[in-house]
Amino acid sequence: MKQIWQHIIYLWRHKIGFKAAAAYLLLLLLLTTVLPWLPLPYEPNYSDVAHVYQSPFESAIVSNKARHLLGTDSMGRDVLSNTMYGARNALLISVPVMLLATLVGLVLGAGAGYYANRGYSMCAGSLLLLLLCILCFSYYGIYLPIQVAGMGLGGTALAGSLLTCLLLLMLLFVIFVLLHYKTNFLQLQVTVPVDLMVLRLIEGLSTVPRFVLILVLASFIPPSVVLLSLILVFTLWTAVARLARAEMLRIKQLPYFEAAQSIGLSSGQLLWRHALPNLSGPVLVAFTFGLGGLLALESTLSFLNIGVPTHMVSWGRLIADIKSNTSAWWLVVFPGGLLSSTVLALYTCSHYLTQSFFKNNKG
């Protein structure tokens, strides 16, 4: 982390493009954080039916109401409020999704690269317990909570599903501990081809386009933030995993890593102390670049009305209103301009970070 901060500080001091992009992103993040406390004249979903498709910058004030500085949409909603809250919702969805996808990709990719050509040795009991825990968590920890939230059964049913998941996981662990030393089969050592499994999983997910998968699921399931986030995490981690695996294979060949192996450090120490610090730079680049693409994808899905639920404000849904009135240019210029500026700023930061880390590795 110290090296990453050194790179960022150097770019901030010497690269005006990086400084401008980073300052814009920090300002946008601060603005969306304090947005609920800002004195905006209208709520994002408030409909002023008397002023539908009002042009921006009109100075007239009717019925003692504040004017719509950036105009209104087809339902009389204030474009300024909707654009700002659209930015807030986009970041609230995209940042956690990209963080989780990056974490999953980093763990699987680094593990695949580290255990390449030799596999991971573990006892059959641990492998069986891991598979059962994954199945249990997938059903009681992911599938049932999504169904409960979709049917609106309330927090009690959701808490019950999660509690059931926790109890079942504890029960499986207790059963495994009791049977482990009494069953010879559970003590057998097996070699798990981690690299092969991760590569085949990446190839399988890459054959199905993310956009097509979301379209298919949207035709059966109503829009949901949780479901959309899970689909995006499930499909986004592959790019980070490829990068992490390639970097891990490179790091394993470096002299300092071979020296650390020769003195008998454990796999955990090698990964945590020596591999991850060198992986963090390229992964940060992948996170920044992926976040820009994810913001654009979320707006595209909302434009097609298959992204977030209709009660949530979105850049894409605001832009989609121009289909009813092509002369309402402000519905594209303001939210589209903010979206384009945000994606451009993220890609600019990713570009400068890539240059910095590449020069450091080359040197």
Average of per-residue pLDDT values? 82
How would you describe the oligomerization state of the chains in this entry?
single chain
Strands in their spatial order, largest beta sheet? 1-2
| Tally of domains | 2
Beta-strand percent range: under 5%
Structural class: mainly alpha
Q: End-to-end distance, in Å?
A: 19 Å
Helix content: over 70%
Q: What is the number of strand segments? A: 2
CATH architecture type of the largest domain: Orthogonal Bundle
Q: Total helix count?
A: 12
Transmembrane segments: 21-38, 90-115, 127-146, 158-181, 283-308, 328-349
Subcellular location: Cell membrane
Family: Belongs to the binding-protein-dependent transport system permease family.
Keywords: Cell membrane, Membrane, Transmembrane, Transmembrane helix, Transport
Describe this structure in words.
The protein is mainly α and 363 residues long. The protein has helices at residues 2-14, 16-33, 79-114, 124-151, 155-180, 194-206, 210-218, 225-252, 255-262, 267-303, 315-320, 330-362; strands at 120-123, 189-192. It has 2 domains: 2-56 and 65-119 and 193-362, Orthogonal Bundle (MetI-like fold); 120-192. It has 12 helices and 2 strands, in the order αααβααβααααααα. It starts with a helix and ends with a helix.
